[in-house]
Specification:
flat, four-stranded mixed β-sheet, alpha+beta, two-stranded antiparallel ribbon, single chain, 12% strand, 3 domains
Length: 350
């Protein structure tokens, strides 16, 4: 049964407030010089033994391949480990370092020899808060979604150019053939570069997802909101990761196929933006409106709608696949809006 103890706040000096701890509790758990952790949680202060956990070291070995090792590194990183000693032959070091740099934020190789290398986490919770990480995740995901509509605009411009070229005389078409071929090559190069940029964005989303997961999982935050709503934020960051995955899959399809779902793309992007706005503001009313908007617009993205009057089997299959990815973005946006409602209710419960 919890023991309640009341203490008066004492003011010492000009601006310092002190609170004495129960003698019995201190004698059982602490000694002079020990640190205690104080967590602000709404109207409560939680005091527990010990300050930040000591930095942990993980011992790992390259047993089969680099991707498997990196997965183990990520698992230990999320668990709160800060130092990693990896037993691996020197020939594999560059490949390991490359994958670690691409996938795990803040982890750098600080030592290596012929049989091992050592990674150290150089990114502390004082340098970046969970909410800064969350805002970065939102920015990256939003940038990825905006590429969907950007690609449709590029495709539309290309169609206008083609129509104008078709109006040219036969002689003009012959004279312009070489320039058209060159323009097509530039177009293909532009599409490839745009896809590469999208892939880099999706990889950044994965990196910041891993960092956010670590921050939430190990009480590394002084931010009371991150502590109070950790379980909700875990679901939010997982939804952001999944939205980025489906956006990238969508962008990998042909421009012509994506262009057919231009209206549906705009619906998905608008739903995401509204959901994140309701989350950051913890605005339950806006979150409810977002969910209603998604429910109303969902039929526009449904396969029966996007395939209306379509007879070409390949085109139907493409539309089905693209619509599925947009529907998943709507589903995860709904989840985010629901988390905003849950957090609002949690903060305002009687």
């Amino acid at each position: 049964m919890p023991v309640k103890v009341f203490r008066r706040i004492q003011k010492t000096g000009g601006s310092t407030y002190t609170l004495s701890l129960p003698k019995n509790w201190v004698e059982k758990r602490l000694k002079k010089g020990d640190a205690v952790q104080i967590i602000e949680q709404g109207s409560e202060l939680l005091i527990s033994c010990g300050g930040p956990a000591e930095k942990q070291t993980a011992m790992l070995s390259l047993e089969s391949n680099e991707p498997k090792l990196v997965r183990e590194l990520i698992a230990h990183y999320v668990e709160g480990f800060d130092k990693f000693i990896v037993n691996a032959p020197k020939a594999s070091h560059n490949a390991i370092k490359k994958q670690v740099k691409q996938r795990i934020p803040g982890l750098e190789a600080i030592e290596e020899n012929n049989t091992s290398l050592v990674f150290q986490n150089l990114l502390t919770h004082t340098e970046i808060s969970f909410h800064a990480t969350l805002k970065r995740l939102d920015f990256l995901t939003q940038s990825l979604l905006e590429k969907i509509t950007e690609q449709n605009k590029i495709s539309e411009q290309q169609n206008k150019i083609s129509e104008q070229q078709n109006k040219n005389t036969t002689q003009q078409q012959k004279n312009n053939e070489q320039r058209k071929n060159t323009a097509q090559q530039h177009n293909n190069t532009g599409q490839r570069q745009s896809l590469e940029a999208a892939e880099e964005l999706e990889m950044e989303v994965d990196r910041f997802f891993i960092l956010a997961f670590r921050q939430l999982g190990h009480n590394q935050q002084t931010d009371s909101d991150a502590h109070q709503h950790a379980i909700y934020y875990v679901l939010v960051i997982k939804s952001l990761e999944k939205i980025a995955d489906h956006a990238l899959i969508f962008l990998k399809q042909s421009p012509a196929a994506r262009k057919r779902l231009e209206k549906q793309c705009r619906i998905a992007v608008a739903a995401y933006n509204q959901a994140m706005q309701s989350l950051f503001k913890k605005n339950a009313l806006l979150a409810e409106k977002t969910i209603e908007y998604i429910q109303e617009q969902r039929l526009q993205v449904d396969r029966s709608e996007v395939n209306k009057s379509k007879v070409d089997r390949n085109e139907v299959n493409q539309n089905d696949f693209l619509a599925y990815n947009l529907l998943r973005i709507l589903d995860y946006s709904t989840d985010i809006a629901e988390m905003a409602i849950d957090m609002y209710c949690h903060e305002n419960r009687g």
